[in-house]
Structures are given as C-alpha cells and as structure tokens.
Design a protein that fits this description.
Blueprint (H helix, E strand, L loop, with lengths): L2 H6 L46 H33 L59 E10 L2 H5 L4 H13 L2 E10 L5 E9 L2 H11 L16 E3 L11 E8 L6 E10 L2 E10 L4 H15 L1
C-alpha cells in the first residue's frame, strides 16, 4: 500500500469486549448486536486523486501547442501563396515574364449586325456574295498605341486616295477601270505604330462578286507574275506568309517588295471576299515585320468572312 493510499483510507475501529471480527481485505460496515443476520455491504474503494501536472509538463505542452500553431500558420501562408501564383497571369509572376512575340494589341473583334432579313455573304440565297453590313464596320480597327490618320479613320475614303497607292503613270488607266467596274464604296483606315510601321486597310465594294473578281484579275493582276506593284516598289514577289490562313469563302494573296529595296520595305495582301476586295498594306524602315503583317491581314480576312 502506497503512502497516498494510507493517507486516504480511514483508521480501524477500536476493539470492544465482544469477540473481534476477523480482519478482511476491505473494511466492512458494523453489524447490529441483535436480530437476524445482516448481509455485509462492501465499501466502495477510494479512488486516488489524479496526479498534479508539474510545471515542467505544462511548459512542454505549451511549447508543443506553439509549434503546432506555427506549422498551421506556415501551411496556410504557403497554400495562400501557391493559390495566388496559380491565379496570376504568367507575365505577372516575377521571373516568369515572357517576351512579346511582336503581335499588336487589337481590340476584341465582332461581326457587325445585319439589316433585318439580310443573309451573310457566303450563305444560301446570297448568290452575289453581298456584304449587307455597313462596309465601314468591316474595316479592321487600329491596334493599341497606334496614331490614326484622321483622313482615313474607318470611314468613307475617296477613290483618289486609294489610287494614290499605285504608280502615277498607271493611275489614269486605273481611274477608267474603276469607272467601268461598278464600284460602289471605298472605306479605309490608316495608322502608324511607335516603331514606325505604317499600315493601311482599304475595302472596295462592288455590285457583286463577279465585278470584284474582274477588277482583281484583269486590272490589278493579283496572283500573277506581273501583279501591279504599289508606288515606289520596283519589283515584287509572292509572299508565303499567308500560307495556312484559311477563311471560308475568301481568297488571300500576299505580296512583298523584292530586295534590294529603298529605305523601307513594303508588303501587301489582297483579300477577295465576295463583292468586296480588300487591300492591306504595311511598310517599315529596314523591313516590315512578319508577325504584325500576318496578324493584320488575318484579322481583316476573318472580318470579311
């Protein structure tokens, strides 16, 4: 028996003159001297109090609690940081920025609304492949950072402005061809980028696809070896940059100025889209870059398709 248990148990009762009761392992309740025999009721064993936690134990438990809280906090911060990085754009994370590939930042594009009951140009019932939408709404907008020419900002432009793109000695014949071609409208936009690249887009709408194709093939000789060059261009060659660009109902022809060229190189593309013929031109000192040129004529092609 431990010292604690000895302090907890009650002392034994004093011996009386009556015969002594034999000692038992557990204390019993005294019995009455008379009457029938009373059964012996055992006393519930005394449970020792729980040992008191020492100061050293409390310190250990406190340290464990603090370390657990620290681990949880660090885990939460780590998860938050990971979630933040995965939700960021790649170029927003320091060290993961990707260099620009040269594309320009064009506005989000969408096809303009059609007059009620009018079909799209390449749908059944539209045999003339007519663009019934406002032609000015089909001109590609200028990209971010561009300085737009106020005389060609997506509105109607004169035939003379369009003809000024070609050599002076050819403009007379071109003017006559335009008069015979059933040309209805010319819309255009021109702009200059910070790197000096000059761009222009012109849309020519004819009465039907037949007139548009005739002007392309018989007047401008688009796609032929003797394609009519633009003003200031001495020689031309077919440009393969348009390979792989496909828009249903349209045809794309890309042309580049032959080297050696002057202080700047000129590249242009024709897009045959039903009743509309588009001309996309870019020039830049030292050479017109591939990426923005391809991006520009591709987007204009999609708008016309």
């Amino acid at each position: 028996m431990s010292e604690t248990e000895q302090q907890t148990l009650p002392e034994a009762a004093p011996v009386t003159a009556e015969p002594a009761t034999p000692a038992t392992a557990e204390p019993t309740v005294p019995v009455a001297p008379a009457g029938p025999t009373t059964p012996v009721v055992p006393v519930e064993p005394v449970v020792p109090p729980a040992p008191t936690t020492s100061l050293r134990s409390r310190r250990v438990l406190g340290a464990v609690a603090r370390w657990t809280a620290a681990v949880l906090v660090c885990g939460g911060l780590g998860a938050g940081t990971a979630a933040g990085i995965t939700s960021m754009e790649r170029t927003d994370v320091p060290g993961l920025a990707t260099a620009s590939d040269g594309r320009w930042d064009y506005p989000k594009l969408g096809l303009p609304a059609l007059p009620e009951g009018s079909p799209r140009p390449f749908t059944p019932g539209n045999e003339g492949e007519i663009h019934h939408a406002d032609l000015r709404a089909l001109v590609l907008p200028a990209p971010a950072g561009a300085t737009v020419d106020p005389k060609a900002d997506g509105g109607w432009v004169s035939v003379e402005r369009f003809l000024s793109l070609y050599p002076k000695e050819r403009r007379g014949l071109l003017r006559e061809a335009v008069a015979d071609s059933a040309l209805r409208h010319v819309a255009g936009r021109a702009w200059t980028m910070p790197d000096g690249t000059k761009s222009a887009v012109y849309l020519l709408r004819f009465k039907s696809v037949g007139f548009s194709e005739s002007f392309k093939d018989d007047v401008l000789n688009v796609g032929a070896a003797d394609t009519l060059p633009l003003d200031g261009v001495n020689g031309v060659e077919s440009d393969s940059l348009g390979t792989g660009v496909r828009v249903d109902g349209t045809a794309l022809y890309t042309v580049a100025e032959l080297a050696p060229y002057g202080p700047e190189q000129t590249r242009w593309a024709y897009i045959q889209a039903g009743d509309t013929l588009a001309l996309v031109v870019q020039s830049r000192k030292g050479g017109a870059a591939d990426v923005p040129f391809r991006q520009t004529f591709t987007l204009q092609n999609q708008l016309l398709g």
